[in-house]
Amino acid sequence: MSARTLPLLFLNLGGEMLYILDQRLRAQSIPGEKARKDEWTDVDRKRVMNDIITTMFNKKFMEELFKPQELYSKKALRTVYDRLAHASIMRLNQASMDKLYDLMTMAFKYQVLLCPRPKDILLVTFNHLDAIKDFICDAPGILNQVDETFRQLIEMYGSLSAGEFQLIRQTLLIFFQDMHIRVSIFLKDKVQNSNGRFVLPISGPVPWGTEVPGLIRMFNCKGDEVKRTEFTTGGNYVTPQREGSFELYGDRVLKLGTNMYSVSRPAETHTSGSSKTLASSAKENIVPNPLAKEELNFLARLLGGLEIKKPGGSETGFRLNLFTTDEEEEYAPAGSGLGQAALTRPEELSYKVVNIEATEEPARRAELERILGDLEVAEPCAESCGKGEDLLALMDGL
Amino acid sequence: MYRREKSIALRSSSSALYNNLSVLRPPHKPVACLGAVHGPTVTVVSAGGDAAGCAQRQLQARAGGGASLVTQAAWCVLPARILLVLTCQKGIQMYESDGSIMVYWHALDVAEHPPAQAVFARGISAAGERFICVGMSSGMVLVFDIPPKGTNITVSEVLKEHQTPTDIAAELGRAPDGAGDLVTADDAGMLCVWSSGEEFSLLNRIPAFGWTCSSVRLWNGIIAAGYGNGQIRLYEAATGSLRAQVGAHARWIYALDLAPATGKLLSGAEDSFVHVWKLSRSPDTDDVEIEHCHAECVTDTQICGACFCDPEGNSFAVTGYDLSEIFCYSQV
């Protein structure tokens, strides 16, 4: 299928990851002067966001990403995000990472499924990049990196036809097929059903450039209109107001892909059910995977590299509930959407809440800085490796 | 009025692909099989049995080394033979109608394409007395000459008019004289009308207007085409002139089907609606007419396949993205 899918998949999932991390770190942060050594501050949060965004938009990595290629398997892509989430001082355990990944993928699946025209996937991507630029608005160096990617996107996708965008969308939908993880923010907003399928509206604006259905026009053999009839569609559609901007700056109009998490809406990062079994029950062989062997090697290396050391000795370490626990259920005001969701939730769908464990390890930080520093002179072995391998190897090097 | 009946369970969910449901209606017999694509596999269900007794067969697009995504599966009913044709990223496979034996495999030459170009086959139709036409992402439409039996299938002709074909439709033995009996559609929205035979000849080229034509059907010399903007357009096959323009759906159309005996038209789209229409020709003016008969909302389902189950159009079946069921409807 489309060989131009990977950049959109990677950037949008990355954008969703940043939304969640930002919201959870913000909700837990302690003002700098009051914080003990082992507590998160705004400075730490900014550092995590900056580090991850810098890694994500690394020039060489982006070059690899934008080369035409097939999608990675789910496993390989997940590994890339494992790496990305650990590009800074924050450490996540396996369960937290699982949950973070579930939230990211379901959010982007929703956006791909709901975008009115296939081309609007580009607006969804621009919404993510706009928000990422806000996260790092006081770091001009990183901002330039993101703008560079923006320009690459416009160059690569700006001239694609509607049919080519549909092929990209279909490739993404095949990637997300059979994933039905329930997410509380979606359940609460009534955009997801309890079976994990998304609600499709049959009202609202039709896609830009199309007409509200309901009119039949008939022509004679000379091309003159001879008859006009109307029919009832069953939906309740309106004409769209205006098209979103596909420029570097502008109003995207479309809301899909904007940040749906915020500090004022804290109780939203739930997935429910045994997401791990759900995710793994989705067919893994959907995407052809000639990289299987490289992937295995890569994952083996990672198991060593990503092992979470328990903080001990002089190291400071602490647990941080990035995903909040039961208390928000208890304190949810009666009659709120959340309360209702809790009431109507069937027994077998009861939520399993996973905490993100975050630790700060100076030794590890120093090592990472050294590795990051090394990267600037390291050249990827472009000749000796396969294309996909290059990308994974680059990520591995970060 | 159509009413929902018991649905058919599928072993795996349907992918978001154009025309992702094929129904085998052998001449003068009830529906024999239904088939839908899931990633690298095709599920073939034999009809008629009760829910538990529905025999299912899964075909893999594996030949040629490694798995590959299937883009379409369709039965081609020729006077002498019925074949099940699969298109995928690696090539074209033809099976006996029950999917038991692969009789032909045509590999795509991946190396000759530029790297940014997706490579696949898509668009399947029987044509004339003994041909099967299949579209290629490179733009070519291959015409296969199918012997009454055996595996001696050969490419008899290559039609080069399109960019990336999406769908192909034919009218076997029913097309009015000179109207053309084959129509090919592409990603850009251009249609070509052909007359099949020892050599295929191009009769008309209907220009694109900016939207993909994802599904096309032919009935009684009338072309019905479904587009990405939700429109259905009817063209005169003989002249290529536009006879009707219908604002049918609020999203991209994925599937059309025509009931040969009655001229009923079925359309399914991402907007979760299935509509039934009726085509006719005015006896006085010979003008093409279309009326709306039925709207069916398949709640929260982006429709990817829709087919009538009988030649009169009294029943139809529908598949949707991510859905492991075929929904069935019958007229009441």
Give structural notes.
The complex is a heterodimer of chains A (398) and B (332). In chain A, 43% of the residues are buried. Chain A is 48% helix and 5% strand. Chain A has one domain. Chain A has helices at 6-28, 42-56, 59-65, 74-85, 94-114, 120-135, 140-157, 162-176, 184-188, 275-281, 292-305, 327-331, 337-344, 362-375, 387-397; strands at 182-183, 203-205, 215-219, 225-230, 236-238, 271-272. With 398 residues, chain A is mostly helical. In chain A, helix 6 runs antiparallel to helix 7 and helix 11 (292-305) runs parallel beside helix 15 (387-397). A two-stranded antiparallel sheet of chain A has the order 1-6. Chain A has a two-stranded parallel sheet with strand order 2-5. In chain A, strands 3-4 form a two-stranded antiparallel sheet. The longest helix of chain A is centred in the N-terminal third of the chain and has 23 residues, at 6-28. By secondary structure, chain B is mainly beta. Chain B has one domain (2-331): Methylamine Dehydrogenase, Chain H, CATH 2.130.10. Chain B has a four-stranded antiparallel beta sheet, with no helix packed on it. In chain B, strand 23 and strand 24 (273-281) form a beta hairpin. The model of chain B has no long low-confidence stretch (mean pLDDT 92). Chains A and B meet through helix 8, strand 3 and strand 4 of A and strand 21 and strand 25 of B.
Q: Give average pLDDT of chain B, whole number.
A: 92
What is the strand arrangement across the widest sheet of chain A? 1-6
Helix and strand string of chain B, N-terminal first? EEEEEEEEEEEEEEEEEEEEEEEEEEEE
Give the number of DSSP strands of chain A: 6
Give the helix proportion of chain A (percent range): 40-55%
Strand percentage of chain A:
5-15%
Report the order of strands and helices of chain A: HHHHHHHHEHEEEEEHHHHHH
* Strand-pairing-aware structural class of chain A: mainly alpha
Approximately how much helix is present in the residues of chain B?
A: under 10%
Strand content of chain B: over 45%
Uncertain spans of chain B: none
Number of domains of chain A: 1
